[in-house]
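Please discuss these two lines.
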Amino acid sequence: MSKSSMAGKRWQFWIDRGGTFTDIVARKPDGSLLTHKLLSENPEQYADAALAGIRALLGVAAGEPIPVDRIEAVKMGTTVATNALLERKGEPTALFITRGFRDQLRIAYQNRPRIFDRHIRLPELLYSRVVEVDERVAARGEVVTALDEAAVRRDLASVRACGIGSVAIVFMHGYRFPAHEARVAQLAREAGFEQVSVSHQVSPLMKIVSRGDTTVVDAYLSPILRRYVDQVAAELGGKTGDVPQAREPVSVPRLMFMQSNGGLTDAHRFQGKDSILSGPAGGIVGMVRTAEGAGFDRVIGFDMGGTSTDVSHYAGELEREFETLVAGVRMRAPMMSIHTIAAGGGSILFFDGQRQRVGPDSAGANPGPACYRRGGPLTVTDCNVMLGKIQPGHFPRVFGPHGDEPLDAAIVREKFAALAGEIAHATGKNASPEEVAEGFLRIAVANMANAIKFISVQRGHDVTEYTLACFGGAGGQHACLVADELGMKRVYIHPLAGVLSAYGMGLAQVRAMHEKAVERRLEAGTGLLEETAAELAALCRGEIEEQGAVVERIERRAHLKYDGTDTALVVPLGTVESMRAEFERQYRSRFSFLMPDRALIVEAVSAEAVARADAPASVIPAEAGIQPRAEAVAQVAMTSGGSSHDTPVFIREHLKPGARIPGPAIIAERNATTVVEPEWEARVTGQDHVVLERTRSRRARYALGTRADPVMLEVFNNLFMSIAEQMGVRLAQTAYSVNIKERLDFSCALFDAEGNLIANAPHMPVHLGSMGESIKTVIRKNAGKMKPGDVYVLNDPYNGGTHLPDVTVISPVYPERNGDRAHSPAGDYGSVPTPLFYVGSRGHHADIGGITPGSMPPFSKNIEEEGVLLDNVKLVEDGRMLEKEIRGLLAGARYPARNPDQNIADLRAQVAANEKGVQELRRMVAHFGLDVVRAYMGHVQDNAEECVRRVIGVLKDGEFTYEMDNGAVIRVRIAIGADRRSATVDFTGTSAQLESNFNAPSAVVHAAVLYVFRTLVDDDIPLNAGCLKPLQVVIPEGSMLNPRPPAATVAGNVETSQCLTDALYGALGLMAASYGTMNNFTFGNDRYQYYETVSGGTGAGDGFHGTDTVQAHMTNSRLTDPEVLEWRYPVRIDGHEIRRGSGGAGRWRGGNGARRRIRFLEPMTAAILAGHRRIPPYGMAGGSPGQLGRNWVERADGSRTELSFADETEMQAGDVFVIDTPGGGGYGPPA
């Protein structure tokens, strides 16, 4: 019997094993569909949810064999590997990596994930053992060190003897020159390793950090997947390797898995690296196929499950990312472009005394929400139960000890009543349990709407023109509310929306993808590109045909980027002209400008083969006529918009095409609940789909008072931070220089009408706390003169700046022209209006002039030697950029800017970022009203102020004297006020201003104080001016912390700022010193200029160890990937390793510093500007200090040059510059 004839007599099962529920869609032999939903983890009832669901649908008792002859195929998406990654329960794995790079994946790009955590927690490493291999290949392919095969054999045998059976092999430039990797892989297989993952096969693309992480993930997860696949296959009568061919009789069901790239593959081909988004990818495929079938070609996917919410964008083609971060691991493999936030039905509700908060913690499947009858906490799902939006009588009865009880609404009412009492006691605001639940729901909806903005508005898409395609078990409960939050007017819900990810498994096609790095100029022609693409296409075709499928099409693509940048866009492979045109179209659409002077580089070529689908295509029938309203099965009380509504409940299966249901209404079905909110209407289409449409325009503004509300306080906190983050995305995308675009050395923030900091994106702390001084300077110097369309720029350290390379662009925010005069002063611009707010962006420009390239001179004596000074300069007037005047300033200084074109391009990017902030603040005013926005700008500061006042109450008076390497002293005394809610921070006794450049402007001091006191608050509040209100800061004029012009300040921003934070922590007695320097390293000549900061170890505190080699305190800039650095510059990284033992000893040990070795391949000038080369970072409470840092040069002739903390030297080919960064101090006497 042929496969096709048997298909009509056998079942298919399409399964999504999610974090909370496992959803199954079964296609019966007659083609009809059944659905089934069960808890993913229910150990009292079954061992595996997927197999239990198959048994239930086939009517097979637990423990009985599954009748495999009745099953044609099982297509599955699974979170088995994702959960193993999140919980760090993968296979013990050894990493084999080039000598000198044993810690490369741990150090990575140096940035810390949460900038205000004193105890920096980095993701746990996946590998349990590292082996350094003697081998080295240069960026262009020369063999620097031959592979030592004998040593590799010994190391492999040693690792295998320890019981480790999985190995990841990652060598420098192995993506391009794989011979060494391939040989070690062969030796590993000969040594008996069951899993061998090799970087040039797993992810053949540049960047050793993300490629290495991806390879380790593959080695770590593939054995776990294999065991799960074997378990399922065994129950289905086969093994992983049993892959039926198209021409063979079929007796074993075909077992297939969904990959992260949106394509199915046979079980035996399913790899760890392709499994991370297995389930969510099915949802995207299901959404796209069903939405297109329904006639919607531009959709926003909204997949809300129990644990998280996935959002996605579709406008004609599947969007993929080739580099992303999952569970703290950098992945460089093709994945569906999905943005996930920790906001699902199981997100836990919190009240912290001032704010109501939702998530990010989740109750998961066990214990689950309070209503699940397992003693769980209140969650978003419980909000909907409380409000009557989820009716226990119309929800699956799968709860209780026997899995047959309904949701428990009584415990939900009891817990919300208690929480309402707690909120009333803390805030004096009496709210009903329903009001409390609706408040939490409003916060959750705002969080989900912000996530959708991230993948749409930030990328230039007008979301109001899209349809919200809603699916997932919890999506329909919130669809109208989320659409309202975004201004969307239509929601589309498929009949199988509650199990659409599972349905997507059935609609998906078998796909094979391969990519290969190229890294050559586009102008070099397409010959090599075509040849490479043909090679990859043949591989893809072979993989599809080996799986018994027929290839429908093969797509060939080129990944293009501008020379010197990191942002590659994917275009169809074609002629040079067509590829350039498509790249420029995409780039201009996303980033708003082009770089015509830069060459286009082909980073990689990829090919994708797509098999012919075996799922029936959707057909759009004619619309059915309007049918009589369906009969409601119940009338229930539902709370929405602060009012209780008598709401009809409809059974989805009873609704016929043409039916129209005005809101409020509830549509219940087996696997989901859809809430039709007031002023919305549900319509059942001819395809039996539900389309929700707004019937009345939404009110322009909330009917919201200006008094602080615990719900809206959280909403505005998140909205303000979201706007700053959107500005940051725009700046990173549009900037010209590597410093801003790749190292992310910039910050964006919002300010009120007085110039007080309101909210920031989590960028550079030294910028954030000091930008307010820049805003206030512009306000003061332009009082009565500012007009709409004006933008200002400054970098003057004596008027709110920090050091000259950090250039701040400031945009006043005015009401819209002809705006609402009732809410906006001078709304028609008939007279000069007053700015409502301000937005600012500060970026570290690659060069602003001065006596050395890069504008970071070690030996500058005055501000003039550090570059071009901009003091309150008008950059834009009435919307026109004053480019000629700015160029004149950049060229007119004694030491002018070396590349004014680059400065102008970065300034344009900053103006664009600010404009994004202006637009979003105006939208906020239009939505909430000016009086409300202004009030909440005050409330968020009051909230931060109260949080700081609380922590001041547990602090003690203290003082600290901090000596720097240059002999200067920072002296600080902190005195707690008699009210125990205020403090004075007094720097009297600090050294007078210095002749060197280690002077710090007062703005830097305020930034350090603001940062330190913000880190004392454990709650997730924005860094804003409210944090400083309880503090009086005393800075003696003429001291090194408040110098008089024209003192040099370039090191004050990068070095003295770090010393200030440690001095403050010392006075507070809270933690030992961190490495206390940014270890600024620059090199260059006439052709090349480069700047980086090298991290060290952080200080320990009471109850936590310091962290090894991570950016701390006032900086969080990234480090360029070693392979990228070597490709772009004539240098070679000989090693970058953790200096074990360099952290101070103690009950809690300090973090270790690092050693970085850079070999120069041609003559250049190199400079170091650092600290703690003479005075070690202090220990605290009996802990030992961290080890000193050092700098030296190992000359090619064998000699050695020792360097000071601030020094400069000429490098020749073969010379090696070595930087040892300091360790952090220990805390408490050693045990």
Notes: The chain has a mean pLDDT of 88. The longest strand covers residues 551-562. The longest helix spans residues 900-928. The chain is about 30% helix and 25% strand.
